[in-house]
Structures are given as C-alpha cells and as structure tokens.
C-alpha cells in the first residue's frame, strides 16, 4: 500500500528521507540562502579570488548551469539584457536552489530597480556607470534598512519568505549580509575612485574596462590610459579594504588579472557560449 503522507514515507524508509526538508517550519532552506550570502561577502572581505558569470538572457537554466559549472557568483544583467522583474525572480530562485550568489546589475541607481531586486531575494546589487561618491551613498541608502539606510521594510516580500521571517533582527541580518558593488566605467569615475571606494557600506568595485575603452578612445583595451585607470581603481579599492574586479574573457587573462591584484574576475555567459560553439564548429569543419 503506498504511503499517503511524508511522515509515513519517512517511517518506512528510516534514514533515507529527511522530513525537515519538506517541513514548512524548518529553517534549513532559509539558512542555506543566508549561508551563501554570508560566505560570498566574507570571501570578498578576505580578498579571496572569486569568479563570476554575467547572464544577459532571462534564463534560470543559465543560472543553474553557471553554478554547476563552478562559478562563485552570477550577475543577473538587468542593464544590457532583456530580463524583466518576472524573469529576475525565477533567476534568483534558481541561484538559491543551486547555492550560488546572485547579484543583480540594475540599470541605474533608483529605488524602483534596487528595491525590486532586493525584495526578490538577490544576494546583492551592482550599480553601473558610477562617477562619484554621492551616487554610492545614494545606492547604499536604498539598499540598507534604517538606521543605516532608508530601504522600506516589507516582510511579505519573497526575500523574507512572505512573512515567515519578520522582526528587527531580520532587518539587521539583511543589512549585515547584503553585498553592494559598483562599476567604474569612465574617466570621470576613475578620477573619483578614491572617494567612491571610501563610502561606508560598499563591498566591491568592478573596473568596467569595456565602457572605459570606449570613453577614452576607440575601444582599444591595451592603451596606457586604460592601464592607468585600472591601477587607480585597484589602489583605491585596496586602500579602502574592499574587493576589486574586472572582466576576463580567457583563462590566461583571468589568471593574469588575479595575479595583478584583482580579486574578482567575470565573463559573460553568452560570449562564453559563442566562443565555445565557434571552437567546436570550426574544429569540425577544419
């Protein structure tokens, strides 16, 4: 006779079914999410090398594939990709299931974009095109609950398990665990890198070398000005005690940049797929 309840199934197969996994009162699922957030933030603080994937297509499956492929974090790209609020929630859910940190790159520093991503359960926020410390202070304020910021508290939001998690300690824990990052992608931003990196609450800065290359010239990645900007940003991040990252399209380039002082490297999942596909197809047709 088939078991009609999980309790009956657990009784028939002792030691093989953990009933707490399915128990709505169990904190296990919630704790794994908190652990992922805490571990990622601790890795950044300790300067450990972390590798990430920018995901510019609205695909939970790409998030899972990146996690199972060994990436330490994913960036759900809501700036250059078509990902909307609905798809973003599913991508965050996939990241949590695969136990990988999920940052959301918002289009700009604005309450609507930031709050939507955080209430959905994002590990953290990445803001592009930052040019000054004032923008960072605005971002931090939108990300953190009072008294550190002005984020509105909605315990019925997904990030708080739809009211299952509530109370002042929940807000304090969220403030502790949240990861906040910015991208410096222009000459103006590089000139203010020190002030940007010194803003309290900021956890990391990414050097947006692609947009910087367009800002300083013709998209060339080997110019002296680009090198100078990278050194300024790395130095500012090191002085402030925060992590510093950059894009790296190959293993060799990633290793080189990690050795040069960056502690975060990332690659776009779509370019990675296209590159692998090209190698495969050209190898067949060679």
Automatic annotation (TrEMBL):
The keyword Magnesium does not apply. Residues 52-269 form the HpcH/HpaI aldolase/citrate lyase domain. Keywords: Lyase, Metal-binding. The keyword Lyase applies. One of its GO terms (molecular function) is aldehyde-lyase activity. Coiled coil: none annotated. It holds the Pfam family HpcH_HpaI. Transmembrane segments: none annotated. One of its GO terms (cellular component) is cytoplasm. SUPFAM superfamilies: Phosphoenolpyruvate/pyruvate domain. Belongs to the HpcH/HpaI aldolase family. This is HpcH/HpaI aldolase/citrate lyase domain-containing protein. It comes from Candidimonas nitroreducens.
């Amino acid at each position: 006779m088939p078991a009609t309840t999980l309790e009956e199934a657990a009784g028939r197969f002792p030691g093989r079914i953990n009933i707490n996994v399915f128990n709505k009162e169990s904190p296990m699922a919630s704790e794994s999410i908190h652990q992922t957030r805490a571990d990622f933030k601790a890795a950044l603080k300790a300067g450990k090398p972390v590798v990430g994937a920018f995901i510019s297509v609205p695909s939970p499956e790409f998030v899972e594939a990146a996690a199972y492929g060994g990436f330490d974090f994913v960036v759900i790209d809501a700036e250059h990709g078509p990902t909307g609020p609905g798809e973003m929630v599913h991508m965050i859910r996939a990241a949590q299931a695969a136990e990988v940190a999920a940052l959301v790159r918002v289009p700009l520093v604005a309450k609507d974009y930031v709050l939507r991503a955080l209430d959905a359960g994002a590990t953290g926020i990445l803001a592009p095109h930052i040019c000054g410390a004032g923008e960072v202070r605005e971002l931090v304020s939108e990300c953190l609950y009072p008294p550190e910021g002005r984020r509105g508290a909605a315990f019925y939001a997904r990030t708080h398990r739809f009211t299952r998690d509530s109370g002042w300690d929940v807000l304090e824990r969220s403030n502790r665990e949240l990861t906040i990052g910015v991208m410096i992608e222009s000459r103006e931003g590089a000139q203010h890198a020190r002030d940007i990196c010194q803003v309290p609450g900021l956890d990391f800065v990414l050097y947006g070398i692609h947009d910087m290359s367009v800002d300083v010239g013709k998209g060339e990645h080997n110019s002296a000005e680009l090198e100078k900007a990278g050194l300024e940003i790395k130095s500012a991040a090191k002085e402030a005690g925060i992590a510093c990252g950059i894009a790296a399209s190959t293993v060799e380039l990633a290793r080189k940049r990690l050795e040069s002082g960056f502690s975060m490297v990332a690659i776009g999942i779509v370019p990675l797929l296209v590159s692998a596909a090209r190698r495969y197809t050209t190898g067949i047709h060679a």
